[in-house]
Structures are given as C-alpha cells and as structure tokens.
Amino acid sequence: MRAIFIFFLLLQTLLSQETELKRVSLQLLWLDQFQFAGYYMAKEKGFYEEEGFDVTFKTVDLKKDVIKEVQEGITDYGVGRANLIQYDSSGEKITLLSAIFQSSPHILLTLTSSEIDSIAAFKGKSLMQTVDLLQSASIAAMLKSKDLDISEINVVKHSFNLNDLVDGKVDIYSGYISNEPFTLQEMGVKYNSFSPQTEGLSFYSDILYTSAIKSRENPQEVRAFRDASLKGWEYAFSHISESVELILKKYNTQNKSRAALLYEATELKKLAYFNTKKVGQIDPEKLQRIYDIYKILGVVKNPLVTDKLLFHNKNMLFTKEEQDYLASKSSITYCTQPNTLPYSAIKNSKFIGIGAGILDLVHEYGGVHFELVETNTWEESLMKAVKRECDILPLASAAPSRMKYFNFTQPYYSEPLVIVTNKDENYILNVETILDKKFSVVQGNAFIEFLKLQYPDIKLVNVQSIQEGFAKIERGEVYGHIDIMMSSAYALQKFSKFNLRIAGQFKQEMKISFAVRNDDPVLFSIMNKLAKKITKEDTQLILNKWVSVNYTKGVNYWYFKEIGIALAIFLFFILYREYAINKKNIELQDLQEELVAVNKQLETRAYHAVQDLEKAQEIANVGSWILDVQEETLTWSKQSYKIFDIDEDSDDDLYNLFRKRIHPDDVEMSENAYVQSLHEQTRYSVRHRLVMDDGSIKYVNQKAETIFDAQGKPLVSYGTIQDVTSKVQQELEIKKKDAYMMHQSRLAQMGEMLSMIAHQWKQPLSAISSTQIMLKTTLELEKYDLADENEREDFLIFLDDRLDKIALYVQNLSQVIKDFSNFYKPNKEPEFLSIDSVILKSYELIKDTISSSNIEVTFDLNAEYFIDIYENELMQVILNLLNNAKDQLIDKEIQNPLIIVKSYKHIDEIVVEIEDNAGGISESIIDKVFDPYFSTKLEKNGTGLGLYMSKMIISEYHNGTISVHNSILGAVFSIRIKNSKK
C-alpha cells in the first residue's frame, strides 16, 4: 500500500512539473497606467501562460540601475527609452526586442501665462526633468535643433507634482503627452506643449529589451515572450474600454480616473501606430538616426552594430546547437546549374538568377553565408555534391536516385512541366495523346526520373542545354522539348530565332527544395527551417524582379533595318492621332456633360434614399450606428439621437454619451455581449434599459455585426438600436393580467376545493355526531350502573372506545385541511419529483368527490422518471382536468362513467393523458377551450380561466405543452414535459 502511495505521489509531482510555468520578471518604465496595458492584457488574457510564462511586473524604482539589472540577469526583461543605445550601441550587453511607441510621448510643458511660447525662450529658465537630459534623445535633439545648449537651462529634480508648474515654482515641466495635458485641461489651465514629433524628431520609446546573453542562449524563450507581449498590445489597442476597466480594477496604483485612462489610451495608440500598421516595429535605419543624434551630443563612442543590438529572425529560428554550428563554419558551400537561366547560371565566377535571389533571401532570414563551388555542367555539380565537395544544391527536386546522398527540405517553390513545340503544332490538351513522339530533355534534371516512372514508354533524348533541344525541334529530330515553365519561357524569349511556342503542360508540378548532404543533420535542420520561412510572396517578388530585367534584355532590334518604313508609319500615326484626339475630345465633352447629369441624378437618388431611410427609421423607431473599431469613432443616425434624447449638435463623445445613458445595472451585461461577439466573431443582440435626463426609463433592443480582417482583427461594427419601450410595457401589462387571471383561477378552484372539503368532512362529522348521540343516549337511559364496580368499568371501556373514534375522525378532518393548505402554498423553486407521485397526490384530494359520483378512475402510470416540477402548480392543472372530466360525466349523465389517467415516456418527453368517456368536445369549440374567459359552464359560474391557466402553468413553469383531442370514448387532454432525468 505504501509503495502505491509513493508511486502516485511521484506521478503527481511529475505532472505538476510538466505544467509548471516559468517565472519571469518585467521591469516597467513607470508606475501602473495605460502605458503598460499591453503587458497587463498579455497576462490577464493568458497570452503569457500559453507560452509557458508566469510574469511578475516591477514598477519603477528610481534608485535602481534597471538596465544593468537586466543585463546581469537580475531582472529578465525591461522597458526602456532610446538611451538604451547609449548604454550599449555594440549590442554586447543587451538586445532590443520591440519598440511599442514609434514616437516618444515625452513633451515639455509651459503655462500660456508665462509667455514661454518657444524653445528659444527656454534659455535661463528652470526645467523639471525626470532623467538626465542626455538620456532623453528626443528632448535633447529638439533643444539642439533650436541651437539651445543644455547648459543654458537650469535642470531641477522632478517632484512629479504638476502643481509646481501651475504655481510657478518651475518654468518648464517634463511630462508625457498622454498624461499631463489631460490634467491641465481638467484644471482649466491653458498651456503650451513642445513635442519632438512636431519638430520632425520621432524617436522610439518604451522599448522592450533583455540581456544579450539571454537572447543568445534562449532565443526561443525571448521570441515567445516578445510575441506574447505584442499580442497583448494588439489586444489592448483593439479593446481599449476593456483594458481601461482592467486597469481600474487591478492596476490602478495611481488612482487615475476612467476618463484619464481613456485619454492616455487614445494618445498612446497614435504613437504606437505612427507611420506603421504593426505594433512593435524597430527600423535599423531609424535606430541609426537616433544613434547619430547621440553622437552629435557627444555621449556615444562605440560604433552602432544593429545586427547585434536587434533581436533578428536568425535568433528566433535556430537552436543554440545550430547557432554554434554556423559560428564554427565560415560559410556553407553550394553547387548549382551553371547554364539554366532564369533559375541558375554562373557568370564571371558569380551565381546569378532566381536561385541566387533565394540564397540572398535565406541569408537575410538566417544570417547564413554561402560560398559558390564553380562547375561547368549540372552533372559536374551533382558529382561534386555526391563527393561532399559542396554542402547543398539550392535548386533541386527529390528524385529517387538522389535519396542515397541527399536529404531534401520542405519545397519552397513549384513549377509545372511544359512542352515546347513548333508553332504549327496544335495545342496539346492531353499529354497522353502524344506520348508516342520523341522529346528532348536537359541531361541530369530530376524530372526525367519522374517522367519515366509516370510514363514508362515515353521517348526521351538527352541534350546539354535547352538551346540544343530547341534546335532539334526545328530540325525535326524531336517533336518537342520538356522543361519547367519558367526556364522554357525564358529560353523562348532569349532564343527568339526559333519559331516555337509552349503548346501544353503536364498536370503534375515539380517541387523545388534545398538538397542537403545527408551526413550533416544539423545543416539539414538549418536549411529546412530556412525553406519554411520562404513564402509565396517572397518567391514571386524574386521571380518578378528577375524576369522583368531579362525581358528588357530580350528586345529585338531588327526593326532598325526598316527605319524608313517605320518613320513613314510614324508620321502617318501622328496625323491620325491628331484627328483621333480631336474626335475623342468632342466625345469626351459629350461624356462629361452626360456624367454631370448622371452625377446629379445619383445625388438626387442618394438624397432621397437617405430621406427614405431616415423616415423608415423614424416610423419603426429604429436607429443605426457605425463604430470604427480601429479609430474608435462612433457615428449615429438621426433616429439614434432621438432615441437617446441627445442633441445632434452635441460636441460630447458619442461613446461616453451612449455609456452614460445605459442603466447602471445593464452596463456590464451590454458591454460583455459586445465583447463576446468580437471574441467569437458572431452577431450579437441584447435588450437593455436607458435612463433619460428626467429619470424616465426606455427599453431598447441592440443588434450588431462586425467585419474582421484576414487576421481576425475587428474593423467596423454596424448596429441598430430600436426603442421597444411600448412593447415592453405591453408585455408587463400582459404579465399583470396573467397574474390577475391566475388569482381568479385560484379563487375559482378554491370554491371547488371548499366543496371537496365539505364533502370529505361530511362523513367524519356525521360519525362524530352519531357517536355523541350514542354517548348521550347511553347516559340518559342509564344503561350502566355506575355504582356497580363491574358496570362502571364496562362504561369506561365503552366511553374510551367512543372517544378514540371521535379523535380518529377529528384527525381525519385535520389531515384534509392540511392537504388542501399545502396545495395553496405556491412553489418558489422546482423540486426533483416523479410525475406519477404528483398525479396520485392530486387524485387523493378529489378522490371522495369523484367516488361519491360513482365515477370509476383507472390508472396506467409508467412515468417513474424524476423531473423538475413545480408541484402545487402542476397539481392545480391535474385537479382542473379531473374536475372538468367529472363535471362532463355528471352533466351528460353518462352510464358507467369512467376517467382514464395514463403517464409514459415518449422519446425525450414525459406524457400525461387524462381521458373521459363523456363523448368528447364539439369540433366547433375544441380549438377555443384554452382561450381566456372561454367556458361551457358559464351558467354554472364557470370563469373560463381553468384551462387557460393550465396552459400558462405548463408552458411557463414547466416549458411544456398541453393539448386536447377527441378519442372514441371522449376528450383526451395531453400534457407533455421535457424529460430531465438525471
């Protein structure tokens, strides 16, 4: 037993270790605010956890050297300013991962009343600055650009109290464009703002970085942390309201208001997407410009090495083993096809063609250096690769014969095989129809093996080049030449003297990969990763670039031999062109006039369409709105303003007006519905209340649909809002009426119940009365001589027996009252009961009344399943149906009256049927029996509510149905309730 316990303990330990998250720390640049919302959202939305991180945030501590702590590994990641370049321009200590803000939010503020309205006016003034001016490249550059020396300003320690500026204790205040301007506006203080961005100096800020050691030794971890962080930022900027609410609840150590956080978010989003569509970008050229500023300021000495300072794709792609492998090899050698342009050729000992573009691309992706091994033929290249004199073949297909020597990476490109023939030949619709003919192929191509496997009887003739193959076609030695599409098209262009064309193609395509020597698995892993990085867009750009250049080279200059004819034709076309232009000008003028008329018609139609739409919205009391999610701008239709009771000329932010109008209890529900629709990319519909200025309440239905881009980002939401106040009020009135009807029905049923109680009390009361008379008669007639001891004892026995009977009768009366009292207690919550037990309990209440009418009741109960039931309400329905059946049998004086009660399970429903043999309900009224106030017993004080309330109880309380139909015997009432068996 102990061994089993230890085994499970070890198993639990191993499982917990597998799922344990890695703890990492992130040093923020300042105190909690929207400036770090992306990191908060990455944590709260689980983006960090998905990558295996448990992240701890550290807020600013001005006494610490944060950059040094990150560099030494005390803190894993940090957020810093552009002065990171000053700290380590060589990239030996830290690595920059991403720049959240493409332009620094850092600004300088002065009061309008101070008349410091230019940077030149800063001279001799006091500046409150958080860090050394030289550490803030953007501010320092702005001052330098205005020929203002830093020494000419009195820099004082920052108090972080904006009142020091307002009260005149300091002349110039260093702050953020996303914070202090909002506070000054709230205070009603007019100010001047000096931003480096307005001076054309946009420098990075809030740069995510880590130590150079970590980026070198754990590139996968660094990549994962960076990507999760950027995912958080994209989410934060796409869901600003949600992010603000999170900060208010969890990260609001500064106690900023919602309005302040929304202002901050709006300003920072502009900076994050300044001149870019993707958050976090770092441009090496821009980094160089920032470095140059520091150089001008005289605070950097080492040259900038962006290749080391920036976290590149190569760091992300390769493991430490692969990086060590590349570091140990000066270059990767390759052999190639020396004469198969546009793909591959060797010219002046240099590799040219599309293949050269591919190697340049993978060098850019992975920093891998390649060295050409020159050959004269493709067969020589293959032999050198087999002998391991070159490591890879950059353009190769996986032929079976090559598998002995090479491993082939994932294909990065594919091309169809085509057939070139004389122009006189017909187009080839089906390759198999011409396989009896001869075809030339360049010797050594991998597709030769494929052709022989696919078409064993094909007749192939080896040639050394495409040009030789084309010559054989013209001499009639072969029917056509087979090669890949691009090579064939290029050759036809280059060797235009041949009267040939591409006449057909094979269905299969040749897949192009890197062939890597199969005795070097690490190199194969590297090249396979690089092959996976190459996209269709990459290859298309290379193809377009190379082909466009070579089409220009293929111009045929034979036209100059006919220069005289060309000049004559040219003069003719000049004259004709002038005639044609005049004619076209007249036609153009006519078209312009038509266009003006059409535009007027369109404007008129558009105007009427807008008017019609506004009229339709007014009639339907439906407004519309459009939300630009990216820009966070909301537009309303005229009817929307009316519904919200807001002036169309209002300058207030529509979103804030909208949110202010929502009933406080409905805010979270309505916002959650919209957020969920964005998350699930579905439409949403929600009903909520609006609170008007006079305190009145409106009910509205909102519906919306959002358009998303290819990456799943929300772009625009289109919605409608309909005022349904009158409809809701009608529904509430209906509910009040239903409640009143229910009360009336209860009263009517109570009358029937009192009748039942009287009937059930009749026999016990009669028995009590008889016993009392007997006791009185016995005493009056002195049947017992109480003086006699034996007779006195007999009398006491007689008296005790009679009193016991009276007590039994009283107990019976009490039980009847108890049963009926319980029936009138409403059920607040459903109970998990058998429906058969409810049927029998209901019958017990009416049993005596039915028996006294000589009505036989039979039961066939087979629904022992337990379901959620409001017991007393369901009893009311069953009693009503039994009473109705009893009344029908008595009224129609049916001989051998009978009520049949059945219950059974049908598919996923419990069915209860109550049938009588009273002959049924007239077909003229059977469809009306469940209508309110419809009754066949009005002359007997029938209310017409019994069956209507039964229907309401079954549908609203039990989500079921009740119906009636006639059988051979009489009416059959059926109750159907969904089976909730557990």
Helix and strand topology:
Layout: H1 2-19, E1 22-27, H2 37-44, H3 47-50, E2 53-58, H4 66-71, E3 77-80, H5 84-87, E4 94-101, E5 106-111, E6 126-129, H6 137-145, E7 154-157, H7 163-166, E8 172-176, H8 180-187, E9 191-194, E10 205-211, H9 212-217, H10 219-238, H11 240-250, H12 258-272, H13 284-297, H14 306-309, H15 313-317, H16 320-328, E11 332-334, E12 339-340, E13 344-347, E14 350-352, H17 354-366, E15 370-372, H18 378-386, E16 392-396, E17 406-408, E18 413-422, E19 438-442, H19 447-454, E20 459-463, H20 466-474, E21 480-484, H21 485-494, E22 500-517, H22 521-533, H23 536-553, H24 563-620, E23 622-628, E24 633-636, H25 638-644, H26 654-661, H27 667-680, E25 684-691, E26 697-708, E27 714-723, H28 725-780, H29 789-823, E28 831-834, H30 835-852, E29 856-861, E30 866-869, H31 871-891, E31 898-906, E32 909-916, H32 946-958, E33 961-966, E34 971-978
Parallel strand pairs: 1-2, 1-3, 6-7, 6-8, 11-15, 19-20, 19-21, 29-31
Antiparallel strand pairs: 3-10, 4-10, 5-8, 5-9, 12-13, 13-14, 16-22, 17-22, 18-21, 18-22, 23-24, 23-27, 25-26, 26-27, 28-30, 31-32, 32-34, 33-34
Helix pairs in contact: 2-10, 6-13, 11-12, 17-23, 28-29, 28-30, 30-31, 31-32
Protein architecture, described:
The chain has 982 residues and is of the alpha+beta class. Among the domains are: 18-103 and 204-311, Periplasmic binding protein-like II (D-Maltodextrin-Binding Protein, domain 2); 106-199, D-Maltodextrin-Binding Protein, domain 2, CATH 3.40.190; 621-722, PAS domain (Beta-Lactamase, 2-Layer Sandwich); 724-813, no CATH class; 826-982, Heat Shock Protein 90 (2-Layer Sandwich). It contains 32 helices and 34 strands. Strands 16, 17, 18, 19, 20, 21 and 22 form a seven-stranded mixed beta sheet that branches. The protein has a five-stranded mixed beta sheet with strand order 2-1-3-10-4. Helix 2 packs across helix 10 (219-238). The longest helix has 58 residues, at 563-620. It starts with a helix and ends with a strand.
